[in-house]
Amino acid sequence: MLPRRLSTRLNHLLTHSPAVVLLGPRQVGKTTLALEIAERRPSVYLDLEDEADRVKLSDPVRYFADHERELVILDEVHRVPELFQSLRGVIDRGRRHGKPNGQFLLLGSAALDLLKQSGESLAGRISYMELGPFDALEVAPAKLETLWVRGGFPRSFLAENDDLSMEWRRDFIRTYLERDIPQFGSRIPAETLRRFWTMLAHNQSQMLNAATLARGLGVDGKTVASYLDLLVDLLLVRRLPAWHRNVGKRLVKSPKVYVRDSGIAHALLGIRDKEALLGHPVTGQSWESFVTETLIAAAPDGTEAHYYRTSTGTEVDLVLTLPGGKLWAIEIKRSSAPKVESGFHIACADLKPSKRFVVYSGTERFPLNADTDAIGLGDLGRALQAAK
User: Fold this and answer.
1) Contact 30, 107 (CB under 8 A)
2) At CA 296, angle to CA 291 and CA 298, rounded to 5?
3) pTM for the structure as a whole
4) Which helix (H) or strand (E) holds 347?
5) Domains present along the chain, CATH in parentheses
6) Residues 76, 47 contacting (CB under 8 angstroms)
7) Residue 79: DSSP 8-state
8) C-alpha closest to that of 338 among 385, 293, 287, 383
9) Which residues on neighbouring strands pair with residue 128, listed in sequence order?
């Protein structure tokens, strides 16, 4: 396994918060990271998909009291939502007994339900962190193209060859559709949801057109919205909102939507390797979503991400509002010889960003003009990490 750069952040949160929720899709490495944390401090681990471990929590207050001096790791905690009511009293008792922080590490795969359950019961007692697949800052620069093609799920990225990687991703998609998603209460037929997921992959980083998707599936717009909400909640799809602040222009309001892991998108489209990807119409859109996802993950906590587009087509691929209000305008190009287009200049005149970048597939950083630098993905990600 590759070391995860969020490990330090997770340790920090456990030191300063009674409970931490680690969110992320299945198979992304949450359990592996949690068990690494457990090796460094007294801990007990329960997998709540395991009936034997759920039985241990028949009397949760007593069980937690028996492990009061340990970090209790609860995996797939959304499977036992009634636990959250018990955790509040346990955390408060731990505070009175001299253990105010580092009491619970909760792992979950469904963001919306888990955030609602934990937020209602544990307000002021809990911190949140999202663990995504490997990103461009966690792999060697020479492996960046492999990461783009295979995606960042550990078993896909680290597979011995492209065929085994594709086999794993197909199994992952099938398991999610046939086993995991129904566990969250969804009654959507697996084949219908696969078609919808595939349609989103075909339209990576494009503005959401719910009416077109609805016609393709033979359903209404509200049904499409519910499908999209489900995949966003499961952290499999990102809805990138349009810039909405007043700049004196008519702005597009529809969000952009994309499958968050590029490897899963490629598997849905049947793209097996780099050669097939470079010859596919989705190449540019795939690269844009891959870069966007990496930069959002690298940005400081509290950063807001949007794209900017006017009704006349002037656009910036990614606008990051950093804590403190500074704007970074980012254009994304697959070309190894990027150029700044006039629309980017016009948009920047509207936005007045503090920094402007064109991310491209190379590694050298150089000025394109007085205000804009061409920069590689890794370098821009590290610049974001260092931003205050």
Assistant:
1) yes
2) 95
3) 0.92
4) helix 342-351
5) 7-130 (3.40.50.300), 141-386 (1.10.10.10)
6) yes
7) G
8) 287
9) 21
